[in-house]
């Protein structure tokens, strides 16, 4: 709940008529290495507070850091995947400032010698066009501890009765990815911001370097926004030549939807201020998910001086070119290209593919197809009940399915039972329910529940005859050529067969007898 | 085998080690003798901030038992040692001479301390020091200064004056030190003891409460060159917990100390260290030592290191810069002192940090934090920290050039003998100048040693000669140091420390 009063905002379209937005995004990604950046403590999320700490990550007097080589590898792979140059030699630096959740009162980070720099990421927008986000740098650093402010109205430090600090997070490896100013997006700036963070998330997931769970804070986004007067179309040279306006930095925008909303809100807020003759204060802003607004945080000024200097407790990182090339060899297919390839392999429409991507089911479907299912069936089953239930639980489909023990092999097996004519569609749904309820594999569930299409044509024929006799009116209509009326009879035949009949076969029989 | 003196505290560590190995004496006996000596004289000298009687005796007993069970033990097993209070000791207070760490009991051992424990050296206690090792006299200790056993009104050097005075007053046969700008060597010089600053990275810094990370180096302190070498071998070696630790075997320091041979070595006298500002008596003893080295078969030449004159200025930018960041962790949030600001209702974390740091840090520490904070500030960084790093590179070049023509360099360790307590307390620059000869080695990361060169004529107080060697050639210090020591002791007719006042301790009386 925010108690702050909302600022004036200008209608977005009006703002776009008057101003040209420029963005810069800083994304922090927690690596999912087994141990922390500079010590051997585990990094698992959700452990008992202050149970994953040691003299090093608690910053006890005398303790010294040692670089996690695995984290350096991940940083290099991220850099390469973002088309960056990889430094031949770089150092860590100390960023000095006091805060209780930072044990040493300096953060070991990188300053003017990042591990990766000068890259780009091509981002696909909804209309199929591509926006190239220029990457300024990706650098390594350590996370801080987590403060919990008790009491007070806002949950922020201001007004709290006391604060608790959990240092489990202190020292977890972070990669900070910083874009260059993103210009030329025009009115699509919020969409571009969201698409970039989304593409970055997919890329990091494909690299298998982070959990990239924005809701758990393993991926966090700070959005810088500034406006400059509109003098032409977004990509006009005259427009690009206009100096950048004063920016604000909106911190901790932690969902894809919020990234889009926060950028849009800040554009409208800046526009209202500038249009009224005011000027933008360079400051950090807090994003309020509930009300969809930002409020003022810390004012950034020249007084904020981190006194960076090279970390004397660590030796420089100097990856050999052989190492870098070997790591380049481990890069996965870029998610965008991979998606295009899979869509074409699977024969999905654009809409179908987008649904699959949005559901986070690409890998599941890929594995299911590999296990022998048709692409159409794989999509149908995964995006049906499992997806619906995962959504209802607020989980992603992959972890939801994993939690229930539902595997791509199960879905392929289910599809196989349908294809072999053992199950019809409605029986298959029941079997899936059974699998989701933990009753075993599809075959086991079908066996246990006695679900099997009756293959005995005699029994089916008897049921068809019985239904035709009982419905002379309907039978007459069909004889007169009203084939659609057969549906009513099929339903009754299925009922007669307790659902265990092949509806297609029933239809064939009815029509054969009445035509 | 050498006969042990009746008073075990007068024996060298090497002799004690031999007697322990042959089971002539037990570690409990040796340890108890030193605890008795501490009880008798530390009231006058104030070398120790904490004496761990129970812990030391328990370790002594454990090592005696290991020996009796036939376990093969290290060379110094059973020989007690004093540890500078800048090294963390699990379960034993570690204050760094500062109020801000009063009452802190570290949950872990420094790597050096772990090595001492594994090698079976009972730890007698923690020695006094200038607060966070900032000073050359121990007068900046929050717990009061240590005194020089040669003259209790004088300083024992600093920051490791606790360790040097422990040795000179026979309260331990060995001690550890740390040397950021001379804190091992200058105290050794003014107390007629021996101390080595190894090559940077030669001894682990893990568990050493950092002053200036790129300059700090732990090292051994003893009364003889061989004792110091034996301790060096125990303390040294690669530590995976310290990224700046060198992954190479400890140089053959003990072999060099035993060989004590300088024949054919080329020794350079540093022109820039020893002229103006050096006390005549210090200079005279140095010149005699150099002549002696020549007699022993070394070739002596003069060498110029033109950039050394900028060393002090560069040092006093780099050290405070790193220190200002290293000392930021003392914020009352997790350990150590916590002071609430007066007259503030429900103070914020920031106010508690400020009040604690104000109350917990002494004047010299605050002075250097302010200097360092300023030097690292944006807009000043290049002019101060950046320039200082360039000077540092130039000094390293001077060393490289010198070592292309000579094997070791020598100079007086400190410009003067021990000054009187209080004499330089109000004049930081005068205090800083005491380290003028020792600082270049820290800036370049090369090893250095101080051994006694005799007593200055004008005041009868000890002077020291400094030996410097190229990185990872620490053994050369011991070759030269041991050869010179032998010749000097022959000339003096016995160890120079025999001439120090006995302090009339009860332990000495008991031993007699």
TrEMBL record, chain A:
* Asn/Gln amidotransferase domain boundaries: 363-514
Q: Which SUPFAM superfamilies match?
A: GatB/YqeY motif, Glutamine synthetase/guanido kinase
Which Gene Ontology BP annotations are present?
A: glutaminyl-tRNAGln biosynthesis via transamidation; translation
Q: Which UniProt keywords are present, listed alphabetically?
A: ATP-binding, Ligase, Nucleotide-binding, Protein biosynthesis, Transferase
EC number from the UniProt entry: 6.3.5.-
InterPro entries in the record: Asn/Gln-tRNA_amidoTrfase_suB/E, Asn/Gln-tRNA_Trfase_suB/E_cat, Asn/Gln_amidotransferase, Asn/Gln_tRNA_amidoTrase-B-like, GatB, GatB_Yqey_C_2, Gln-tRNA_amidoTrfase_suB_CS, Gln_synth/guanido_kin_cat_dom
Highest taxon, organism lineage = Bacteria
Q: Offer one Pfam family short name for this entry.
A: GatB_Yqey
Q: What is this enzyme's catalytic activity, as reactions?
A: L-aspartyl-tRNA(Asn) + L-glutamine + ATP + H2O = L-asparaginyl-tRNA(Asn) + L-glutamate + ADP + phosphate + 2 H(+); L-glutamyl-tRNA(Gln) + L-glutamine + ATP + H2O = L-glutaminyl-tRNA(Gln) + L-glutamate + ADP + phosphate + H(+)
GO function term, MF aspect, one: glutaminyl-tRNA synthase (glutamine-hydrolyzing) activity
Which intervals of the chain form a coiled coil? Answer: none
Q: How does it assemble?
A: Heterotrimer of A, B and C subunits.
Q: PANTHER family, from UniProt?
A: GLUTAMYL-TRNA GLN AMIDOTRANSFERASE SUBUNIT B MITOCHONDRIAL AND PROKARYOTIC PET112-RELATED, GLUTAMYL-TRNA(GLN) AMIDOTRANSFERASE SUBUNIT B, MITOCHONDRIAL
The record's section on NCBIfam families has: gatB (TIGR00133), PRK05477.1-2 (NF004012), PRK05477.1-3 (NF004013), PRK05477.1-4 (NF004014)
Q: What does it do?
A: Allows the formation of correctly charged Asn-tRNA(Asn) or Gln-tRNA(Gln) through the transamidation of misacylated Asp-tRNA(Asn) or Glu-tRNA(Gln) in organisms which lack either or both of asparaginyl-tRNA or glutaminyl-tRNA synthetases. The reaction takes place in the presence of glutamine and ATP through an activated phospho-Asp-tRNA(Asn) or phospho-Glu-tRNA(Gln).
Protein family? Belongs to the GatB/GatE family. GatB subfamily.
Q: What is this protein called?
A: Aspartyl/glutamyl-tRNA(Asn/Gln) amidotransferase subunit B
Species of the source: Terrabacter aerolatus
Q: Which gene encodes it?
A: gatB
UniProtKB/TrEMBL annotation, chain B:
Any idea where the Amidase domain is? 29-477
Question: A single GO BP annotation from the record?
Answer: translation
Region named Disordered: 137-166
Q: Name one Pfam family in it.
A: Amidase
An example GO CC term for this entry is: glutamyl-tRNA(Gln) amidotransferase complex
Catalytic residues (UniProt) = 84, 159, 183
Coiled-coil residue spans: none
Q: Does the keyword ATP-binding apply?
A: yes
Question: Enzyme group, top EC level?
Answer: ligase
Q: What is this protein called?
A: Glutamyl-tRNA(Gln) amidotransferase subunit A
Please tell me the species this chain comes from.
Terrabacter aerolatus
